[in-house]
Amino acid sequence: MMGTNVSLEENFQAYVDGENKVEPKDWMPEKYRRTLIRQISQHAHSEIIGMQPEANWITRAPSLRAKLILLAKVQDEAGHGLYLYSAAETLGEPRETMISDLQSGKAKYSSIFNYPTPSWADMGTIGWLVDGAAIQNQVMLTRTSYGPYARAMVKICKEESFHQRQGYEVVMKLAQGTPEQKAMAQESLNRWWWPSLMMFGPSDDESPNSAQSMKWKIKRKSNDTLRQEFVDKTVPQVEYLGLTVPDSDLKWNEARGHYDFGVINWDEFYNVVQGNGPCNKERIAHHVEAHEEGAWVREAANAFAQKQAQRKKNTGAAA
Amino acid sequence: MSGGWLSGKKSQFTKEEALKEYFKFLADDALVLGQQLSRWCSKGPVLEQDIAIINTSLDHIGRARLLYQELATLEGGETTEDSLAYFRDHQEFRNALLLEQPNGHWGDSVVRSFFIDTFNFFLYDGLRHCENPVLAGIAEKSVKEIAYQAQWSAEWVIRLGDGTEESHEKVQKSVNDLWMWTGELFEKHPVFEKLGSSFIDFSTLKTEWLEKVTLVLETATLQIPDPESWMQTGGRLGVHTSHLGFILAEMQSLPRTYPAASW
Questions:
Q1: Are A192 and A122 in contact (CB under 8 A)?
Q2: Does the model's ipTM exceed the 0.85 cut?
């Protein structure tokens, strides 16, 4: 028995090493399945909780065009959440379980959404930096070993790239606008820059799940590599806008061919992850409240569907 | 009008003024409803319906933009779609009072949508043949979206009415509470006489609307309130409820704080 398992796992590793996609009905190690459920549901939750900081500005968007773009963006995120919940369901995890794990705090979501959005500029900065950082990660995931997840990522990446351009456009309008608008953009950048770098997760030697995920080709680049790529790509964009990166240690390192940057405040990171961010409680409370307020509506829809099915059956029997 | 709370409101219009008023009726209805529905974002009873209701909000705001763009052309000068949305105060808005009523619970919002979607369906279907080519074009584009909205909201009224005892009671109360705001949709207004008959006179839509609403409420096993009961009025003349003040204060806050900025 033991021997069979080892050989199944060896076969699986060889299959993955051969750059083949794992499909829902294929045999997979239980730990691979659990890792994917954790990661995909966490990703889905991030899309859903991520709706809140942006929904916060829909009613106050400063032009009708901006309002439409923001609404459409948040709607895309809801769609991504739905798509990802479905991908996780292919691994045998029901959506209700994932939702209750989110609400109980058992499941996590991207910690960046535990920061508030007091400024309209945040609608630009989130699109530009937060979606930008997410894309850095997600482009890698289009080649992840689990088929349904990889395919979901292809679609999601296309829309996220669009969001990132829209976000950059919002910031650009502010940066090129009145002095108050430019200050608004800088203030927002100051607040989001470091949390965006934290999005890639702890350094490689501090990241507990990374090595196994790399081996299974769920993950294909290390946290530090992705973070460096993001910094290298984003710094010129900040400069183009005439804004300043809030990091006095930032400078181009000719020898490495990369930017050197300052030390991330990991104390803040771990505290926000563990529930001490400014909005952790608010985000979950909002989700729970909407879920509870919708309970009677879901019950009504189920009751009606059952009545309809019964009526159809009765009509069928009569005929 | 004299002797009541609508005293002193303008009742004589030139043809040019009448056309602008007509565009305001349509555009302000669409904007105020779209703004209200957008509040549901991240608060829907289930993810699929969160997406569905945001979708209707997007349609309404999209339609409002097209209508404001044409109204801005008619107004001329510095007027833009955004100056119309962000720099007018409550007394300049011409939306029906129904649309500024609070979202309430899911049942309240879907009944409000059902009443206006059904009205919009007959209105925009008729406006496809309007002599004003811009309006006819907007109607042609919008009527497909509106047909979907009307179906979506009617289906929810039926589901809630014929769902559980709790949902039945809740949505019956929504219907009863919102009913007094529906009469205004079909009021005679002096601008209709100034415009050609291809500009649908809203009062001509009442029979069709009532037939459709009756059918859906019956299917939903709900009671139909008395169509002859006392109805509220004022929106088409710029006399609003307190709710509109808060809706505008929130919506307009940023452009009014930084009037020199463009976004």
A1: yes
A2: yes
